[in-house]
Amino acid sequence: MAGVWRKTKKALGAGLCVNLPAVAGDLEDGASAPRASDAVSLDSTAAAHASAPNTPAATATATDEAVALRRSKSGGKSSKRMCAICFDSMKPGHGQALFTAECSHMFHFHCISSSVKHGNHVCPVCRAKWKEIPFNRSLSSIVPRGRGGLNVNQARSPQQDAYMALLRQGPNRQRETPILLASEPVDFNDDEPLQKMESANIGSSRIVEIKTYPEFSAIPQSSQDDFAVLIHLKAPYANPEQVTGRSVNATSNGYPTSRAPVDLVTVLDVSGSMAGTKLALLKRAMGFVIQHLGPSDRLSVIAFSSTARRLFHLRRMSHSGRQQALQAVNSLGASGGTNIADALKKAAKIIEDRSYQNPVCSIILLSDGQDTYNIPSNIRGARPDYRSLVPSSILNHTFRLVPVHAFGFGVDHDSDALHSIAEASGGTFSFIEDEGAIQDAFAQCIGGLLSVVVQNMQLNVECVHPGVQLRSIKSGSYLSKVAANGRNGSIDVGHLYADEERDFLLSVSLPQCREQTTLLKVACAYRDSLTSEDFKIQGDEVKILRPKSPTSESVCMEVDRERNRVRAADAIEAARAAADRGALSDAVTILDDCRRILSESFASKSGDRLCTALDAELREMQERMANRQRYEASGRAYLLSGLSSHSWQRATARGDSMDSATLVYSYQTPSMVQMLQRSQNHCLSPQGPSQVQQPRMLLGKPQPR
User: Fold this and answer.
1) What is the DSSP string of 117-171?
2) pLDDT at residue 622, as a whole number
3) pLDDT, tens digit (0-9, with 9 covering 90-100), for 331-356
4) What is the pLDDT, as a whole number, of residue 633?
5) Which of 178, 204, 274, 587 could be a cystine partner for 575, CB 3.0 to 4.6 Å?
6) pLDDT at residue 222, rounded to an integer
7) Using CA atoms, how far apart are residues 519 and 659, in angstroms rounded to an integer?
8) Which residues, 6+ apart, have CB-to-CB distance to 510 below 8 Å?
9) Residues near 101 by Cβ (< 8 Å), separated by ≥ 6?
């Protein structure tokens, strides 16, 4: 038995047991708050058993540990012949390099170098600090430093990060392999029941604002065919709890909250190209996501390479739920090809088979490569059908209830495929050019998902004056329609994050009239995501004066600003089409013409900040089209992420998306900004959460558009 207990102690010394500190709001249903005297970790519990080997419980535990830890026939004979990290035998001359530390303990070189690479500079057996290490190259030195990125703190390397420290507390890959190899059920209806929720008093603050802006307040009495009207929507504001992920007043009986809980499925690429730095950064980013989901939120993780596997069922992120999630993520290894379609099919099945449903549901997809199993090679220039990668159950939702937010990681991903997947499902596409920015990109995304306040919104427009007709609606990717007689129209807006804004530009024809003309009346209907209450809001009627002679009135600033944004989005789409057919010079010319038109607009001459951001964005796109090589490496992905941001009017991650002069910044909501602050300031330490500190570079509040 002595050999068995030596192995057990070495396992504990190597950090193979996990203790995730409890966080306010994490208590299981019916559990009482832990006292300081009850704070005993898994490590200390196991150590207590080890110190009392004569007790029956300890004997049973020792037997189990002996079976689990035995890796070779000679493992129990001598600790000097067994690596304390992988528990395999160590014999000179067997083709494996060995490393003897200053403290005289010996390990496989590849085992200890991997441990040191992730910041462990102490002996796994005796915890002695080492001055000489087998691998002294800092991981931060191999993290690519792209253009700007998401304002990532470059000094924050994965081995120094608090979330990487949490992940390192989990079992090593060999110990966690059974999680990945466990058989999956036929149906994924094994999701954990929802937590009991206490009703929240939200009052009248959850009302969507509707504003309308005619191009001019007065138009001559003659008829006009193309008169612009802007409809502006703004979602209710976010309460403090909405941006933190958890309520500060959680109780054991219920979870009072002012936000709707989320069902989230993350689909993670672990193909061979993700090995090394990319996988370490992905684990850190997932650690951040797991830590910021509340006990009412539920998470399931799918890892895919040549095939897709569900790591664990859809379960609540309580204290124990986060422990299992961190262990599962830490167990991931990289190998194989890339099968995006199989992964999305499994994610859709998890959502379809749910026995319970949280109000908000979404999928996060990350990939650094191209689907090598479902997309045929490009024959005679034919464009692949990327929509075939999206399960039909996701495509068939009218309001796109399950958006897939896709993230292209690095420069080798298939941006066309990921953008098409996001576009078809109602999600956004983000381009993570600087691999070190992955955590900030995830933070911005979940900052929005944790603040959904409006669902199933539909905007309706009706002409009032019998001579007024609705000609067109500029709604980006939102589904809109105009009646055949031009008397009414509608826009399916779907869901909105807290404080999020939407602008829609309408074109109407005006009849000849000698008196004040009432053009339109606007209304919207939606469901509150927290209370499931249905709302119907009526906006003010749009009216204009009809003087006999023209006036010297300037165009409405809000209308001109939105017209510039729509014009820029159309130019980006046209430039992308030209570049994809090989006409890079034509693409650059299209963007250059758009920049010239923007500079001559009333809004630009008035110093409008949005016009400045649009010009900077178009200039950056021109630079990324300097040659075919640069366009293929980053230009296409940059254009598509910008196009996704414009079409949904929602923030996406790009190379310079945290620069306050860029357009993406204006789409950020306060919830996104605060979650980014948390990501950039390591607000959680391995000992638990701390107060949010101000970032080194203050992001500031998003400016109203």
Assistant:
1) HTT--B-TTT-PBPSS-S----GGGGS---SSTT---TT--GGG-HHHHHHHTS-
2) 96
3) 999 999 999 999 999 999 999 999 99
4) 92
5) 587
6) 87
7) 40
8) 219, 223, 224, 225, 227, 467, 468, 517, 519, 544
9) 107, 112, 123, 128, 130
Q: Of 592, 662, 573, 584, whose CA–CA distance to 630 is shortest?
A: 584
- Amino acid type, 439: Q
**Which residue type is seen at 493?**
V
Q: Are 435 and 295 in contact (CB under 8 A)?
A: no
Question: Closest Cα to residue 146, out of 659, 644, 575, 664?
Answer: 659
Nearest partner of 317 among 43, 19, 32, 27, judged by Cα: 27
Q: Decide: 444 and 412 in contact? Cβ < 8 Å.
A: no
Q: Which two tokens stand for residue 527?
A: 């469901």
What is the per-residue pLDDT for 196?
77
Q: Residue 623: helix, strand or coil by DSSP? A: helix
Helix 557-580 with 584-599: angle, nearest 10 deg: 170
Q: Which amino acid is at 191?
A: D
| Ranges of residues in the chain whose predicted pLDDT is under 70 | 1-81, 87, 91-96, 110, 114-115, 117-120, 131-182, 197-205, 238-257, 376-382, 396-400, 655-665, 682-705
Residues 6+ away with beta carbon under 8 Å from 604: 564, 598, 611, 612, 615
Tens digit of each residue's pLDDT (9 = 90 or more) over 654-665:
864 444 444 456
The one-letter amino acid code at 123 reads C
d(CA 514, CA 546): 6
The pTM assigned to this predicted structure is 0.74
What is each CA distance from 352 to 194, 249, 265, 316, 360, in whole angstroms? 16, 33, 12, 17, 14
- Region of 325 on the Ramachandran plot (φ > 0 left; ψ -120 to 50 alpha; else beta): alpha
